[in-house]
SMR family transporter
Amino acid sequence: MKNYLFLAFAILFEILGTTALKYSEQFTRLTFSIVTVLAYAAAFYFLSLTLKTIPVGIAYAIWSGVGILLITLIGILAFKQTPDLPAIIGLILIIAGVVIINLFSKTASH
């Protein structure tokens, strides 16, 4: 179970890094640029810890899928970026994929 906690930290740091990246304005704002680099480093560190017990494809699918969903929500709330219908459908398919992997894949349970 600890491995999924590490995966959650990896996702949270990736979200922080991506949000800070937006605020860094192409790395022209030093504070946000530093937060971006440190958050991504922490995200990859925690992701690496999950790979001790979760297969790389499964961990990456969860990490990227949940990350895409959360950063989209941040984009909507913080940056007023409204996804169109194809984007919403794509997000639903990503969520469905992550749910299917976690509920039904025997690979995910190793």
Q: What stands out?
A: Residues 2-109 form one domain.
